Amino acid sequence: MRHLETFRLIEEVARAGSIRKAAEDINITSSALNRRIQRFEEEFGSQIFERLPHGVRLNTAGELLVQHYRAQRSELARVQSQVADLSGARRGHVSIACSQALIPYFLPEQISAYRAEHPGVTFSVRVRDRAAAERDLSQFESDLALVFEPVHMVDFEVIASAPQPVCAMLATDHPLARKDGPVRLHDCLAYPHVLPTREYGVRHLLDSATRGRSVSLGPVVESSSFEFMRHYVMHEQAVGFQIPIGLKRDLSSNIAVREVSRRDLPAGTLFLGYMKGRTLPVASARFAMQLASAISV
Amino acid sequence: MRHLETFRLIEEVARAGSIRKAAEDINITSSALNRRIQRFEEEFGSQIFERLPHGVRLNTAGELLVQHYRAQRSELARVQSQVADLSGARRGHVSIACSQALIPYFLPEQISAYRAEHPGVTFSVRVRDRAAAERDLSQFESDLALVFEPVHMVDFEVIASAPQPVCAMLATDHPLARKDGPVRLHDCLAYPHVLPTREYGVRHLLDSATRGRSVSLGPVVESSSFEFMRHYVMHEQAVGFQIPIGLKRDLSSNIAVREVSRRDLPAGTLFLGYMKGRTLPVASARFAMQLASAISV
DNA sequence: CCTGCTGCTGCATCAAATGCAGCAGATATC
DNA sequence: GATATCTGCTGCATTTGATGCAGCAGCAGG
Q1: How many Å apart are CA A221 and CA A235, to the nearest integer?
Q2: Three-state DSSP class for A161?
Q3: Helices marked H in chain A — which ranges?
Q4: Could you say which of A35, A39, A77, B19 is the most buried, measured as most Cβ atoms within 10 Å of its Cβ?
């Protein structure tokens, strides 16, 4: 939208930390950019950047302003989506921030199912750890968040939630894979095991459950990638951990899955939500409803 | 703000019902205005006016857009007020829609008291019947509403409320003015009486209380002005009705006031509120706090 | 048919935004 | 301490985009 152009420039300057640098990125001269910002500050009635010897930085007023404009921009997108919808167009864009577990199976299925009915709707999917997903929402970079064990839950309006017990991932020829049903945590940890890094919910649950107990964690590999861990347990006979929604349901795969006994490890929760106070664009709202019924099953 | 200029034009066109007429009012040529609207519709991606043989009218998309922009404008005002506040400026503007009863004594006192401490803050006061006050809020024409017996209360976030029993206004030499304390409704109605028109809360309460009862209303004068009624009861020996907050507290006035017995007429309620979902500018929020404590006393 | 309104458009004009070059001031490097 | 290099900022010429003027077609009411 034309009238939000100045704001785009402001954001760019804030990001670059310098007017000249930002001007280069946008391919205009620094003088033009400089004057636009000066003009804006004048009519806004207050400086929004503090001038430092080596560039500029948003001051408090600027931060407030940027927050306002982000909200405004997403609001406008909502209105446009609503308008498109009332002309029967069923167009729109859904942006979603999610935990890694949703990436391999769940979201691809859900999105393709949705797009089969609404081909005009496009998606962007961002992988975020549980803290970053919430930040994404509050900075209007994503409409929806689908997060396992979110951290603060401020500004997070919950649409749906589902319990997700932690499961052990095993190579099919692993000793623990011979039985079915729940497996005890100390049995898992007796074997070499791979763990996600601390920013992830699964690790958080494991840390909490073992703190001050007789069992303790001693990962042979720590990784920020669940995909890596899923593949790793097939090589060394190690134990990995993941939540069910991140695991293939069919039995033909070469990974065995056993739920960790809830006596040892309480189930975590997967949350679907959006930023408190927002009204979602129609496409996002509809997709959220689909997700909600999918995870509640 | 510069970038909301196009919207101002759109609003103007919607109001005038014709591009040419609006262009005259704004003192630009119709061609310029026409092209601005066309450009806007193009980048917005949808028509916002339907073209009629004798002018234009907002279509559904346009209505949505106007609503959005109004919200956006008031949001921007809030941000500016917040920025002014953090530089210690204590400036701002408070717009308030209120029932007639607040006009003569209550609001002048409250506003002057507030302005004594914050001289930079300006006010606009709109007199609205109880339905119009709520419409004002939802169209972002007022920040606050102070209404006796509001109608729907949708989109109305209550800050504070206070019971207001209906009182009889009498000339000091009126027979009913000889006693103190509550007066029975049938005694009032036995005398010539003046009533507010149906859109007002006091009348609404009286209508409800007499419906299907032995007593019935037979006003000698119906008026939409409480000021008129207050003065009228001093001429003909008639009975008028008003709520306490609209009446002078001191005894030196030439109007006697007696509360109507609550057995006959339940007390109404005065509500202070703002539009649901909004965040008020600092000045409005502070003034609202002052009003809240004033009416709760 | 005519009059008076409407929205719309081609062309000339004007204003505002931009680009270019250069300024002063501050930091870092030698 | 001099130099080099960065910063934001400003005067002047240029270009781009918005505006004004005149005139078009379409529709309603007389």
Answers
A1: 13
A2: strand
A3: 5-16, 19-26, 30-44, 60-86, 106-117, 130-138, 185-190, 201-210, 226-232, 282-296
A4: B19
User: Smallest Cβ distance to A87: which of B46, B76, B277?
Assistant: B46
pLDDT of residue B252: 66
Low-confidence ranges of chain B (pLDDT < 50): none
| A125: nearest Cα among A270, A284, A241 | A284
Instruction: Give pLDDT tens digits for A246-264.
Output: 998 766 677 899 999 999 9
B35 touches strand D (CB under 7 A): yes
CA distance B55 to B18: 4
DSSP class per residue in B30-69: HHHHHHHHHHHHHHHTS--EEEETTEEEE-HHHHHHHHHH
- CATH 3.40.190.290 intervals, chain A: 167-266
The answer to whether the CB of B273 falls within 8 A of the CB of B158 is yes
Residues composing chain A: 297
Would you state the pLDDT for residue A254? 79
Instruction: State the architecture of A90-163+270-296 in CATH terms.
Output: 3-Layer(aba) Sandwich (3.40)
Pinpoint the residues of chain A covered by CATH 3.40.190.10.
Answer: 90-163+270-296
For residue A200, give the nearest of A96, A98, A97, A99 by alpha carbon. A99
CA-CA distances (angstroms) from residue A246 to A29, A98, B199? 49, 12, 61
Separation CA B157–CA A289 (nearest Å): 28
The pLDDT of residue A124 is 94
Nearest-by-CA chain A residue for B43: A1
Burial class for B74, CB neighbours closer than 10 Å (0-12, 13-18, 19+): buried
In tens, the pLDDT along B232-266 reads 998 888 999 999 999 987 666 778 999 999 999 99
Q: How close does chain A come to B164, measured CA to CA in Å?
A: 34
Residue A47 in contact with partner chain B when CB distance is under 8 A: no
Question: How many angstroms separate the CA atoms of A273 and A158, rounded?
Answer: 4
Please give the nucleotide, over all strands, whose C1' is closest to the CA of residue A18: D7
Mean predicted lDDT score pLDDT of chain A: 93
- The highest-level CATH class for domain A167-266 is alpha beta
The terminus-to-terminus CA distance of chain B in angstroms comes to 40
Range(s) within chain A of domains with CATH label 1.10.10.10: 2-65
Query: Distance between CA A105 and CA A95 in Å, rounded?
Result: 18
DSSP run (H or E) holding B106: helix B106-117
- Residues of chain B found within 8 Å of residue A9, distances taken between Cβ atoms: none
Strand locations in A201-284 (E): 221-223, 240-242, 255-259, 268-275
Cβ atoms of B120 and B150 closer than 8 Å: no
What angle is formed at CA A135 by the lines to CA A132 and CA A138, rounded to 5 degrees? 155
Query: What number does CATH give the domain B2-65?
Result: 1.10.10.10
User: Do the Cβ atoms of B79 and A68 come within 8 Å?
Assistant: yes
